[in-house]
Write a structure and sequence with these properties.
The structure is a single chain. It is built from 8 helices and 11 strands. The chain is an alpha+beta fold and 240 residues long.
């Protein structure tokens, strides 16, 4: 290896290490348990990719090749049946990870809701990383368990809750998640009303009507189409 190639290699590695160490999502992400030296090793096998709003990250039944961690922006996972009915499976924000099915194929599609930045690790490396860094493997198990709980909560929400309860539960979920785009009592809604309705199993008109009702009761205040202000948290909880 020539001197200049070596210098270039070191410069690239320095950039990658700095990028990972100063990642805005690191505090909540899969790699949050790694120290500076370990982060440097992880940066050598990870790739950062940018996606535009509306861009497909992967499609349903496509081969699953990577694990993804959200650096910034938001996306949804969705599945469409043979009749064209869509079910939104979940919304993902900075710090969330996804993309680890057991049969080698994606079970749904992923769509960018905003300008999106993802940290991508090839699946062929992930088991070696877990073996080398047991703390990261433990973190992965914890996050996977949390996702499993959220899936069970979502199943209960779809099958047993009223429309008002569904909307209240959804707003509380977003409020507790506190994405990087939200501050104070703000609730950030990067998704459309149709996305929300397909997540909750409601008509989009019902979503808009209940949000208007919550605003008339001075529980929330609409700042714009993407941001709500939560005025009365305790009153919102009474809808559950």
């Amino acid at each position: 290896m020539s001197k200049w190639i070596w210098v270039r290699y070191l410069a690239v590695q320095h950039y990658r290490n700095k990028r990972c160490l100063h990642c805005p999502a690191r505090i909540n992400s899969l790699c949050s348990v790694l120290n500076h030296e370990e982060i440097g090793e992880l940066s050598e096998i990870s790739v950062v990719r940018h996606f535009s709003k509306g861009e497909v990250i992967f499609s349903d039944e496509s081969p699953s090749t990577s694990v993804y961690n959200v650096i910034s922006g938001s996306l949804n996972l969705q599945k469409i049946d043979y009749l064209g009915n869509r079910q939104v499976m979940g919304f993902y924000f900075a710090g969330d990870f996804f993309g680890f099915p057991c049969n080698g194929h994606n079970q749904c599609s992923a769509l960018a809701l905003t300008s999106l930045e993802l940290c991508i690790i090839s699946r062929k490396y992930i088991m070696d990383i877990f073996f080398k860094f047991p703390a990261m493997q433990q973190k992965f198990i914890e996050l996977l368990s949390l996702q499993n709980k959220q899936l069970m909560d979502h199943t209960m929400l779809l099958g047993r809750k009223t429309a008002s309860q569904k909307i209240a539960s959804f707003l509380l979920l977003l409020f507790e998640k506190k994405s990087s785009n939200a501050e104070g009592d703000n609730i950030y809604l990067p998704m459309s009303r149709l996305d929300i309705s397909d997540f909750l199993g409601l008509r989009s008109e019902t979503v808009s009507r209940i949000l208007s009702r919550l605003e008339s009761k001075e529980i929330i205040r609409t700042k714009n189409c993407k941001n709500l202000k939560l005025i009365n948290l305790e009153k919102l909880k009474t809808f559950l």
